[in-house]
Structures are given as C-alpha cells and as structure tokens.
Amino acid sequence: MLVAHRSPRSPRSLRSPRSPRSAASLALRLCVTVGAGALASLLVSARAEAATLQVGPGKAYAKPCAAIAAAKAGDVIEVDAGSYPGDTCAWSTDNLTVRGVGGRAKIDLTGVTPAQQKGIFTIAAPSATIESFELSGAAISASAGNNGAGIRHQGLNLTVRDCYFHDNQNGILGAPSTAGMGNVLIERSEFAHNGAGDGYSHNMYLGNYAQLVLQYSYSHRGNVGHLVKSRAHVSFILYNRITDEDGTASYEVDLPNGGTGYVIGNLIEQAATTQNPGIVTFAEEGVPAGYDDHLYVVNNTILNHKGSGTFVVDPAPTPAVLENDIFWNGGTITSQASAVQTTNFDSSKGDPKFADVAHFDVHLLSGSPCLDKGTAPGVVSGQALAPAFEYVHPLGEVARVNVGSAIDLGAYEYGNTGTSDAGPSDAGATDSGAVDSGAAEAGADASLPVDDAGSGDASDDAAGGADAGDAASAGGGSTSSGCSCRVGAGSDDAGLAAAGVAAALVVLARRRRRSA
What we know:
By secondary structure, the chain is mainly beta. It has five helices and 37 strands.
C-alpha cells in the first residue's frame, strides 16, 4: 500500500524520505481488517521467531549465501568483514536484512556465473535490506544479456546502505514485481566502473517502481552507460556526488520516462570523455500513461568538462523548474524553451569562485558572485524544494543552514554551520510529502518478473522500460490485497488497536535472538 502525500500544513525544507524503522511504525500503517488483538498476537509470534544468523570464521555459517538459504522471513544476517569470493545466490524470503559488520563484507564474483545468470544477489522477495557490502565482478555473456549485476532486484522494496558496487556489468539492476509499485532507497553507497561498455548497462538502473530515493551517495567513472538511470514514477536524487571524472559515461542522471523528478543539492559533473553531451536528461523516451512529467532541478552545482552539450535535456511539455543552480564551463543550459529558470548562474556571468574545481571541491569562496543570490524554492504539492543537506565526501551529509540574507546558489552554502547526521536518515519522508520507502510492503507480490524464465535481458528495457506504460493499470494507491486503512473506529476497536501497537512495541524491546 502506498502512503498518500500529506497535505502541506507547515512544509519543512526538503529532507530525506524515511526508511522503515521498526515493526511498530509498520503496525501503525497496517489495515485493520481483523481484530487488533489478533494482529498483536501475529506480531508477537512473528518477532519471537526472528533470528540473527552469523557468518564468518568460526561462526555458524561460513558464507553469506549459506545463511541466506537457512533464514526465515524477518531474519537478520550479520556477515563479518572480509572476503567471500564466488558466493552468489537468489532468494524470495521476505524482509531479510543482510549486513556486513566490522566493515564491508566483500564478494568478488570474477569468473563465476551469477545466480540465475542475473546478479551476485538476485532478490525476488517483497522486501530486502542490504548493508555494508562490496560487490564486484558480476558478468554474463553477451548472448545471455551482458547485464550481470551486483544486485539484481525483482521484488518490490529494496534498501541499500553503505555498499560499494564496482566493476560489474550493472551495479544495481532492478524492476518491480508489480509495475508502478515498490520503493527503492539507496544511501551512502558508491558506484564505480560498472557497465559492459555497450551503452545498455549502467552504474545503476532502476525500473518502473513507485519511487526511487538516491541520497548521500557517490556514482562515478561509468563505462559508457549512465551514472544514474531511473524509470520510477517519482525519483528523488538528493545530495549526491555524481561525477564521471575520467570515465566514459553517457548521461549523468537519466529519467527517460519522466515521472516526477527531484534533482536537488547535488554535485554533478560531465567528463570531457563523455559518450553523450547531455548531463541531466528527462522524458527523452516519452512519457508513458500513468506518469507525471514535472522536473525540479534546484540548488545543484553542475560541471561540464566537455565544454559543450546541454545541462538539462527535457522534451516534456510541462515546463521544468531550474532554480538556484550553478552551470559551469559552457554548454546550453536547457533544451526546453519553456523551462522556468530562476536565479541561476552560468559561466557567461563570470567565475563562481569555487574552492578547488580541479579536485571537485565546489564550496564557494568569499566574494563569490553566487553568495546570497538565491531565491526561496518554495513548495510544490506539499513537497518542499529547498535543500536541507549538503553532500560530504565520501558518502556523508551535513545539514544545510542558510547563513546570509538569502540562500546561496549551488549545492553548498558558504559558511554553513550545519551539523553532520551520523546515522541512517529518518528525517521525515512523510513530513516533507514524499512516499515512505517501505510503504508497499503489505500485500506485496513475491512472484518473479516475466523475464525470469530466461537468464539476462539483452535490451535496454531490462529494468522495466518496455512495459513502463503498464504502470497505469497498477494505480499506485493500494496493494492487490485491497485493504482500506481506517482511523477512529468504535471505542472497542480503538482500544484493541492501542493494545496491538503496545504489544508490538514490547516485542521490539524484547526481541529474542534465536541461535543459528
């Protein structure tokens, strides 16, 4: 079930969409189609059976995939930092958390065929979380599709944190099991040197999900493909470093089916060696039925080492919003004549005075013409557009606080006094109007996509391009279970619901660890 946007009461500055934090928060969203007392009993039973399986030298399981095969729904698999070469598997067990501990767990698959000829981790579960892994070397033959992936996702909801994907044919390749459903959250993760060199494989390629959130991450040095590609209905590209450097990537950010695109607070760079002169592209393949076509490009610093081409390519009929951006070193700002451009800066106006642009330090220096020159981006459909964070290299963020009389242009505020956010963000997806990243969990369809009968997919539509229009029939309001959440029922129902939530909280506080 997708959580509806909140009405814009007192919109906050743009903060990061919230990942699912606990079973208690999930319980508050569950549909009351049975007595809440029964729901509480189910929660108690489910959490009592949850386990933590441990992997590593001297542990119960020698390799991650052995533990994954033994796990039950909701289990946590903790993998000691170290190398587990050649370990690859597929699973459909719901709601597993697979995380490295004490550092990243590394799987190099060089010379080994990925599970189902798809990915190091091939996931068909309704929900999955992967944390602190380094995945590399995934490849399949050209005849099988040329698109081996670090993670091949075929479920609904996926969370990836603190991971490093490199030297695969695709870093992450994903398409939801139900078109137009599911949410993907990628944060504090790095992508480098992915791509088969054919232009159809990318650092990351996410299909027609309901929502993608990419934040605090570093995608760079692509091999001919794109640094970020998303066909999601809503794409949040927030506070990242997306720089090709000495790579040969094509587009830096590609949203080929449009949708609603929020590209806010990023450092984006096109290399001189690019395969395509567009930097941010939107709706260039057309807007399918069921998709929006609004693009918001706000407070980014976009560098163009090619010196020509187009910063923002948008053939959609709805005017794009380009506000408070810095466009550096030549090129056409946008292909869209109707785009609304407000308080942007480009190199024809002079030197923006970056700290060290040769090393991608684009903080503004004292005396920069970009200081205090921005305008308040405002709010659209309950979603605040002003940046709330700045990317901190590598893979971090700091709160952005306006220092002068007005917001500065670009991705960084001069003299910013914001504090670092040390943990995974729970800053409030719903507070700023974004869809909760775990919203589709209830009633999810665990079945594999149609293409599972084969191995890889040779076409660029492997992540949902060919059937992107099917999302119109998926709606986006509720799951196939057809449940309808209700609030404020009779006093008996209310009391039972309160008891159910209380029980869930107690279970969380006293979660048992089942020895593996």
